[in-house]
Automatic annotation (TrEMBL):
Gene3D superfamilies: HAD superfamily/HAD-like (3.40.50.1000)
Keywords: Hydrolase
Source organism, top-level taxon: Bacteria
Signal peptide: none
GO molecular function terms listed in the Swiss-Prot or TrEMBL record: hydrolase activity
InterPro entries linked to this entry: HAD-like_sf, HAD-SF_hydro_IA, HAD_sf, S-2-haloacid_dehalogenase
Protein's UniProt name: HAD family hydrolase
Length: 213
């Protein structure tokens, strides 16, 4: 069992709310722009560039870090975990399954996740690997650290393009979770049927696994 991070384990609402505050935009407007951009198939970073022309993520993050070194800024903590995460992961480990986290995240996300003391065996982030989803090399690394055949891995994420399709092309099974802006949007797409299962929450996962025999 391998899990994505953002909008699979972590509710990113507070992160984007802080970004809206940082950029001086009402939160509702910022969230609305996010939904609009994603519905058009555009990149999330386009929202930042619309709000602040010439936006440079690296420069803005560095300035924010210098101004507020002790705040969460664009990071997260245990308060951002979806409430079904800890019990679902514990149930899966109780079934004798290996449980890993591997997602597109900065280096700082690994210690943030480790500090939550989640019932997982390993935590990996894309910036540490130097490769990110949907690059096939990312899923090759997932298989390497999992230490099992790809057909024994279920990758769980909120996106068809970044999670479901590349995981399946790597020979894995894939679950799509309906939460977060992309999760809900992608679950409505015709290619959502490509997922081995579409979940409304992680609490559904142990039962689905048990039913697979």
């Amino acid at each position: 069992m391998v899990f994505d991070v953002g909008e699979t384990l972590i509710d990113e609402t507070r992160i984007f709310a802080r970004w809206a505050d940082r950029l001086g935009v009402p939160r509702l407007a910022f969230f609305g722009l996010m939904g609009g951009m994603l519905a058009q198939g555009r990149e999330l970073m386009d929202v930042f560039r619309v709000v602040k022309p010439g936006f440079d993520l690296e420069a803005e993050s560095a300035a924010w870090r210098a101004e507020e070194p002790d705040s969460l800024r664009e990071s997260f903590d245990s308060d951002d975990l979806y409430p079904d995460v800890r019990p679902a992961l514990a149930a899966l480990r109780g079934m004798g399954l290996g449980v890993l986290i591997a997602g597109n995240q900065p280096l700082s996300a690994a210690p943030a996740l480790a500090a939550m003391d989640l019932p997982v065996d390993q935590i990996h982030v894309s910036d540490a690997w130097g490769v990110a989803k949907p690059d096939p090399a990312f899923f090759t690394r997932v298989g390497e650290v999992a230490g099992v055949d790809h057909n024994e891995i279920l990758y769980v994420g909120d996106r068809i393009d970044n999670d479901v399709i590349p995981a399946q092309e790597a020979g894995m099974r894939a679950a799509l979770i309906r939460r977060g802006m992309l999760g809900y949007l992608h679950a409505e797409r015709s290619d959502a049927k490509r997922a081995d299962v579409v979940l409304n929450g992680l609490d559904e996962l142990p039962g689905w696994i048990a039913d697979q025999g």
